[in-house]
């Protein structure tokens, strides 16, 4: 099982060194800034070979309609670099534990409509449809902040109660 912990500046620098594209570099920096502001935790998964996954846990949802209806902490940008090794599940469990430590009653996430594999994983881990469809709007930017691609992905929103 991988070890999960918040990123350090040194971790982010290591990721930046192999990031490749300027859009990826800008994304990593934005995750670090969110964590430094206290708005999120940038969680990294480690195994013996190094970093094998990442996710951000936002203190509150980035979707206004979700905040109005449920106000959960929110998992965002979960990515397991190694599939089938429990990385995603470990990141989710760590995010849930952290959300509980923030005294949040619920945690949620948006999942793209065509990502049935992720939906199955989340449902297996206790997440349930919130009867909300959100549009995940995000941009890929270069190092100068120039928008390279703008995304608007329809997603189902899933929630899990963290109440004891």
From TrEMBL:
Keyword RNA-binding: no
First and last residue of the signal peptide: none
Organism: Kribbella lupini
Tree of life domain: Bacteria
Keywords: Acyltransferase, Transferase
Protein name: N-acetyltransferase domain-containing protein
Domain N-acetyltransferase stretches: 2-153
PANTHER family: AMINOALKYLPHOSPHONATE N-ACETYLTRANSFERASE-RELATED (PTHR43877:SF2), AMINOALKYLPHOSPHONATE N-ACETYLTRANSFERASE-RELATED-RELATED (PTHR43877)
CDD domains for this protein: NAT_SF
InterPro entries: Acyl_CoA_acyltransferase (IPR016181), Bact_Acetyltransf (IPR050832), GNAT_dom (IPR000182)
């Amino acid at each position: 099982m991988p070890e999960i912990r918040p990123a350090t500046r040194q971790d982010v620098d290591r990721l930046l060194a192999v990031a490749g594209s300027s859009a990826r570099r800008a994304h990593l920096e934005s995750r670090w800034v969110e964590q430094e502001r206290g708005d999120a935790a940038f969680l990294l998964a480690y195994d013996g070979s190094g970093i094998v996954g990442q996710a951000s846990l936002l203190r509150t949802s980035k979707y206004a309609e979700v905040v109005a209806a449920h106000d959960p902490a929110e998992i965002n940008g979960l990515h397991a670099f190694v599939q089938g090794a429990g990385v995603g599940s470990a990141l989710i469990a760590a995010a849930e534990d952290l959300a509980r430590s923030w005294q949040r009653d619920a945690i949620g996430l948006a999942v793209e409509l065509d990502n049935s594999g992720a939906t199955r994983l989340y449902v297996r881990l206790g997440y349930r449809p919130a009867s909300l469809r959100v549009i995940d709007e995000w941009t890929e930017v270069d190092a100068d902040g120039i928008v390279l691609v703008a995304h608007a992905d329809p997603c189902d929103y899933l929630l899990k109660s963290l109440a004891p």
